[in-house]
Amino acid sequence: MSGARELGDRSGSGMNVPLVSNGEGAHADQEDASWPENSAGGGAALETTAGIWSRITFGWLSPLIAEGYRRELRRASPSEPLLGGDELPAALTEGDLCELRRDDLPQVLSATASRAWAEEVALPGQERSLRRALRKSFGGPFFAAAGFKFCYDTLQMVGPYILKEVLGYLGRCEEQQTSMVDKGDCNLGEGLFYVSLMSASALVQTALLHQYFQLCFRSGIRANAAAISLIYRKALRTSGPGKRSEGNGSSPASPANSPPASQHRSTGEIVNLMAVDSQRLQDTMTYLHTLWSGPYQIIITLIFLHYVVGWATAAGVVVMLLQIPFVTFVARRIKLAQRALMGIKDERIKLTHEVFGSIRLLKMYGWEDSFEKRLDDIRERELTQLRKYQILNIVSGAVWATAPIITGLATFAVYSALYGRLSPATAFTALSLLNVLRFPLTMFPNMVSSASEAQVALQRIQQFLEGPEVAGRLPPPGESGDSSLTTGPPRAKAVVLDQVQLEWPNGTPLLASTSFSVPAPLPGQKRAHLTVVMGTVGAGKSGLLQALIGDVSPVRGILSTSGRIAYSSQVAWTRNATVRDNIIFNSPFNEERYAEVLSACQLLPDLEAFPNGEFTEIGEKGVTLSGGQKQRVSLARAVYAGADLLLLDDPLSAVDAEVAKKLLKMLRSKLVCGSSIVLCTHHQGAVKHADQVILLQKPVVAEEGANGTVTQMAFCGPADEFVRRFPHLSAPDAGVGLTRQPSTDEVAPEASPKSAAEKGRLVQNEEEFVGSVTGDVYMAYVRAAGGPGLAVAVILGVFLAQALQTGADAWISVWSDHSKPDTDKLYVSSSEGLIVYTCLSFFAFAGVFCTSGLFRISALKAARSFQRMLLQHMLRLPMSFYDTTPLGRVLNRFSKDIYTIDEQLQSSLYSYLQVVIRVFATIIVIAVATPWFLAVIVPLLFVYKQTQSYYIPSSRQLKRIESNLRSPVFSHFSETLDGVSLIRAFGQQPQFLAESTDRVRRNMRAYYLNVSSNRWLAIRLETIGTLIVASAGTLAVLGRSTLSAGTAGLSISYALSVTQALNWVVRMAADRENNIVSVERVREYLRLPLEPPHRLPATDPPVASWPLEGRVELQEVQLRYRPELPLVLTGLSLTIEPREKLGICGRTGAGKSSVLNVLLRMVEPEAGRVLIDGVDIATLGLHCLRRSITIIPQDPVLFSGTLKFNLDPLAECADGDLWQALRRSHLAAHVATLAGSAPDGPASEAACLVAVVEEHGKNFSLGQRQQMCLARALLRSNRILLLDEATSAVDMQTDSLIQGTIRKEFSEHTVLCIAHRISTIMESDRVCVLEGGKLAEIGSPQELMRQEGSRFKTLAMLDASS
């Protein structure tokens, strides 16, 4: 009677819960850093308060199931009036879920797991074990489940035993009827007693089994939540994904200098640990007891089988023993295959994260095809490995699936040889026992495989947890914390470096022996002490600040800091939250100080332009802000914190001259008078404001430079002395400041509101589907798998296999009824019976094996198709989609949804198909044996159908809610990894951990309700299904005078399985719909409108010959970023002549960056035309246009891989050309250090070009990344060059070199440059000033400077005065 029903829920991916309405869900991103137990809406955990009967029957879930069904009825019949007149959603929402039990809350689980892992780390002389830590933390419920499982397994023997007694009873009745002599052995009461025992045993087994499952699911959910928490905690203590030498150009890629593997993990790999590996732990916990339960079931079944068939059992045991070595070998291969599969999956997710995190740059360069091919290559390797993995699983499953068949054949053969006649009681009791064997023999190898997968997952997570961590810094006085520093600083010093030598984590030198100090702020001081750190690109300024925040440890000397730190990084980090939330950053809100900070950081004009002011939502990675706005928000965050030590990394590089001047004055104002400030900058105007100046320099080396040289502190002292010694670094010529012109990238502001409450909200809630999954979703999957013809072939194959299996079982009935040679009936000898049974069983198995293989191959084809279509479509979506969609949502499609389509969906679909056909076969068999059974099964099938309709709406919607609530977990985790250094510097780890835990909690609630609802369903279906067993048994007893024992045995044995089969029809229907939701979610993105075609062969001119001149005309161009937003270009007309150098300037919001967006068609204009060499660019394919224009963007992006791939992803250039581009962009010396050249000579060009570039270019400083973009431009050498703040992050000397290169190399090119430094504008042929999206004035710089009232003159005067 067991078998199938012991397979709980194979779907899912999230975590824990109970029910009832609350008000959560409307504001997903506004959770507090800490929250009470019932913050979800005040509802208590109903499971905790439920009575014993409610817990046994899962009655505490009934209100939720009923509510889901009621809303489904309302959705189907919207004209029906609502009860009470309340407006309700069309389906269940997150607001209908209540809080978790307290011991299931993620923050409780997180604390417990962290303590257990800390104890493991502290164990002396003992190997650490994450498995042991999890066992200590959550072993109680898991081991309690073992008691329920033991009782259930033991009671499984009751069914076959009673079946033997029933068939013996019916056999006696048959003999009495044949002999016409009443021996008193056919009493009706005895038969009904056996039937009652059989039914009672089934009810008890049902209650035991589902309590066992509930405890196992709870244990798995806890393990998942704990693993996610441990990974997140560890991520907060590491140096960041792939981060070994950020901000510095000296990170050799040679193996000798490589850090430990765990330190190389990328964002994608770390996210994969959380998304896939932790999920495998949860999935495995559900069935882990099978590792002991399976052997126990096998042993007790064989013992009872011996009781039934005697020593014939030995033949079956020998068969199973012979299979063990082969299965063990296959299990080992499965483990290795799974490990390799996970490695390839890591690689794919890592590159996917990079591609869609940098999608704007890919579109600007027209590189989508190159990266698509790279991802396709990885995907093909993944599918090849997945095919190997699945073949091994098919082989393993086939071996164990044949075990009961071969065991039965051997047993029956030996029994016939030893004992002769095979009676119905013996035959069907043995068959029943062999069916009991089928589950452990099938599940045990699967569990061995799953346990191997879980072990691999544990090892991967543990390897990450044991990886190196940042050293940290001395905590503020009075607080405890992690510190590896030698001593605390004197109270009078905020920073002390005493003979400190710094190296990057991989051993690359960063800073030679250095000593300096920064005074601590004194009570009552009027202004802050300002230390300005200057130096060339790659000199290690950012590295010095990383050492001060504790991310880089000194290898010698004493480095210490005191007080609270606030940090503004060079690449401004913003959260996907409102402007106010980004600035407050979990600090207490002080309205007066907040207003002062907004004013001092020059953010008030920007807020006035935003749709909802300070409550406007900033998109992911600050996509709605310009570079200057992001820098000022980051600076405002640091200033608002009111910390003792302000560490500012180049906050002036992306702001205009006037703003830079005001920001420097702010640093000397009373707003920051309670702080000491360390400012790293290239802005020479900062020197005159400084109390102390530090100059970092590398010794001069030849351009073909040998190995990297160690940065030294060339000067440390007062500002006036610095001015005397280095006048060229402190007194720029008038009008040639190191600041940019007033500029803002008009990346579209936030989406306009659909209601006043949503004004300024950029990222909308993820769409939730309601109702059943439509038929076209299934047809889409069938078409992707090979078409309707293949689907029909699979269905017919399953039908044929089931028919053969049913025939084999029916043959046992015939054989046992006709095994007496001394009767009038047809005689079937033992040899004839065995031969027929063997043939039918063999062909049934062959049918299942071939059909399963065909289905899995087809499913892999569908998996390949959906991933490829998704990738192709996503790479062709317009930028407006990515501006309003968090990266986590995109990654969720490519990770969890693709994983479900790859591995889970095929299993649920095939299981559903098998079980439906099994139900039909079962009903036919019982109906043929006992026709009166139809009177019972027809109403019972009606009840089952109603139960399915009642249950599935809630289950389906809970799965959708859980899928949508998984995306915020991904998004927050990815966001944290990007800003981990800043989070640590502010000491915000507890707040971010709390937010992550809360997002996990919300995801857990939906998942736990979903799996608990399956228990609710199973209890009811199996209870009702027991009526089938009772009915079949009762009808057999009542028909004892006309029914043969063999026929009755077939009927009752099938009745014992029909309960589970019908149960599984409903459960697999729910499982199928839960998993097909992933196809639905993928197709949701496949229906999004695409950007214009990449290629138009009919109109695209040859890229090599167009444009020839570089003439650009904008004719009355009007542009808005989305339909609901105002125009940013309001009829702009402008003509740029061939080879002209045009500077573009204007104040914030004037439309400067919009000109570049129009030229590249990043946004399509609403009206007007743009002509290049007389060709309307709207008639061209996007790749033809974008590959014909070169841009050097403000935010430089590098990808993990080789230097050669980063320079030339399309593989169009020779190695010599690449090397020349590096020389001309002044990067050759640095690249030589990446290749690990010897000190006495340069590295070979080939070695340099294959040097490793880390994720996001972390082994290049920001300025060096901008130089890489210049090298790309030199390689493309298109007739038109666009410069967008291209040198904002380099020092003046490097800027002069780059500008000289641009003037020389692009002298015959048309150049459009958004103003960044006044020297660039002053040397342009013409300068245009934009205002309000229109051309305000245009002319040569000299001409405009002579005009009175010239807008350009005003901007130039502001720059000169700074």
TrEMBL record:
Keywords: ATP-binding, Membrane, Nucleotide-binding, Repeat, Transmembrane, Transmembrane helix, Transport, Vacuole. It is found in: Vacuole membrane. One of its GO terms (molecular function) is ATP hydrolysis activity. It comes from the Eukaryota. Gene3D superfamilies: ABC transporter type 1, transmembrane domain, P-loop containing nucleotide triphosphate hydrolases. It is a multi-pass membrane protein. PROSITE patterns: ABC_TM1F, ABC_TRANSPORTER_1, ABC_TRANSPORTER_2. SMART domains: AAA (SM00382). Residues 1-42, 238-265, 469-488, 735-758 are annotated as: Disordered. Its main location: membrane. The chain crosses the membrane at residues 311-331, 391-412, 418-437, 789-814, 834-859, 915-944. CDD domains: ABC_6TM_ABCC_D1 (cd18579), ABC_6TM_MRP1_2_3_6_D2_like (cd18603), ABCC_MRP_domain2 (cd03244). The keyword Transferase does not apply. Pfam families: ABC_membrane (PF00664), ABC_tran (PF00005). Residues 143-453, 792-1074 form the ABC transmembrane type-1 domain. Residues 247-262 have a biased composition (Low complexity). One of its GO terms (cellular component) is vacuolar membrane. Residues 502-723, 1112-1357 form the ABC transporter domain. This is ATP-dependent transporter ycf16. It comes from Polarella glacialis (Dinoflagellate). The lineage of its organism: Eukaryota, Sar, Alveolata, Dinophyceae, Suessiales.
